[in-house]
Amino acid sequence: MDKPKVVLGVSGGIAAYKACELLRRLTESGHDVRVVPTASALHFVGAATWSALSGHPVATEVWDDVHEVLHVRIGQHADLVVVAPATADMLAKAAHGLADDLLTNTLLTARCPVVFAPAMHTEMWEHPATQENVATLRRRGAVVIEPAVGRLTGVDTGKGRLPDPVEIFEVCRRVLARGVREPDLAGRHVVISAGGTREPLDPVRFLGNRSSGKQGYALARTAAARGARVTLVAANTSGLADPAGVDVVPVGTAVQLREAVLKAAADADAVVMAAAVADFRPAAYAPGKIKKKDDQDPDPIALVRNPDILAEISADRARPGQVIVGFAAETDDVLANGRKKLARKGCDLLVVNEVGERKTFGSEENEAVVLAADGSEIPVPHGPKEALADTVWDLVAARLS
Ligand SMILES: Cc1cc2nc3c(=O)[nH]c(=O)nc-3n(C[C@H](O)[C@H](O)[C@H](O)COP(=O)(O)O)c2cc1C
C-alpha cells in the first residue's frame, strides 16, 4: 500500500525547529512527507535538515524545478497538508488566497484536509486581522489549532506558543483517519470532564478513584481534530499531556469540577461528563494529619453527598439544544443499571461500560454501549478509546445539526 502523502508546510516563525520533531513523528509512523518551507522559514532551519529528515528535495519558490510543475503537483497529490508553525503572515495569505511561493500555491491546489498550527506573539494572535483570517480558514473547513499558552520568544509569556509537536502529530493522525470529511464540529464549543476527583481527608490523604482520564483526553483530541473549540476540565490527570489546541482547566475535587464545568458550559453546544466524580466526600477536613492512636480502632469516616453535576446540567441546560452526555461505569447488571441512570439523570446520551480492576481504567481501549434518550442503543465494540470518542461525537453532531 502507498504511504499516506503529507505536505509539511513550515513558515518563518521561531518555532520552525519544532517542526523537525513533527516531521520525524510523521515519517517514523509510515507517512511520506514532503516539506515545503517558506523563504523566511529557511532563516530558522536550513533546507539540508528538511531534505535529510524527509528524504525528499526541498523547494521554496515556484521557480524551483519548474519542469516538475511543483506548484500544482505537490498539493494535488497530498492526503494532508499541515502548516506548522503557521505565521500570522501565512494565515493572512491563506485566508486571502495569495499564491506567491510554493507553500501558498500548494494550499490553493490541495483538495485534502488542511491543518494550521499557528505560533506567534500574543499581540499578533489577538489582532482582529489574524482572528478574522483564522475564522475565514475555519469556515472553509481547515482545522486551525489554538496556540498554547506559555513561554514565547525572549522573556515574554502568553498565548501564541506552538503546541507540543507530539500533540500536533496526534491531530494530524486523526484528521488523516477521517479523510476528506468536513470538520463537523467546526464553530462548536464542547466541554469535557476527564479524570477522577479526589476528596481530601487531611493534608496528605484523599478518597479517590481509579479513573486515568484517558477516555476524556481521547474525547478532547478527537473533538479538536473535528474542528471544535474544546474545554477540558481535568481532575487529577497530571500524567497526561495537554492535547493540542485544547483549553485545559485543572481541578481536584467534585465541587471544583462542578464550578469549572458550569462556567465553561454557559456557552457550550455539548457537555460530555467522562470524569469519575466522587458521589460522597468526607464530612470534615482535618487540617492536620490524622494520627494513629495506639490500642484504639480508627474513627469511622463520616461522608456527605457531593452535588450531582450530570443531573444538574441536564435539568438546567445553559443553552437550548445543548447536548449532554454522561458516562456510567458499572461493575454488574451493566445495561439495566445504565438505563435506570439515563432516566434518572435526564441526559441525552449515556455511555455505559463495565469496569473492574483490569477493565477500562488506565487502559488504552474500551468497550461500551451508548444508550440514547430516544430509546436507541449503539454498541461500540472493543477498540481504542478514540474510536468510542468518535462514536460519541457522531451522535452529538447528529443531535446538534
Ligand atoms: C526572530 C524572528 C522570529 C519570528 N517569529 C515569528 C513567529 O513566531 N510567528 C510569526 O507569525 N512571525 C514571526 N516572525 C515574523 C515572520 O518571520 C515574518 O512575518 C515573515 O514575513 C513570515 O514569512 P512567511 O509567512 O512567508 O514564512 C519572526 C521574525 C523574526 C525575525
Automatic annotation (TrEMBL):
Pathway per the UniProt entry: Cofactor biosynthesis; coenzyme A biosynthesis; CoA from (R)-pantothenate: step 3/5; Cofactor biosynthesis; coenzyme A biosynthesis; CoA from (R)-pantothenate: step 2/5
Cofactor(s) needed: Mg(2+); FMN
One GO BP annotation of this record: coenzyme A biosynthetic process
Domain DNA/pantothenate metabolism flavoprotein C-terminal: 185-398
Stretches assigned to the Flavoprotein domain: 5-171
Membrane recorded as keyword: no
Stretches the record annotates as Phosphopantothenoylcysteine decarboxylase: 1-189
Free-text comment on the cofactor: Binds 1 FMN per subunit.
Family: In the C-terminal section; belongs to the PPC synthetase family. In the N-terminal section; belongs to the HFCD (homo-oligomeric flavin containing Cys decarboxylase) superfamily.
Protein name: Coenzyme A biosynthesis bifunctional protein CoaBC
Organism taxonomic ancestry: Bacteria, Bacillati, Actinomycetota, Actinomycetes, Kitasatosporales
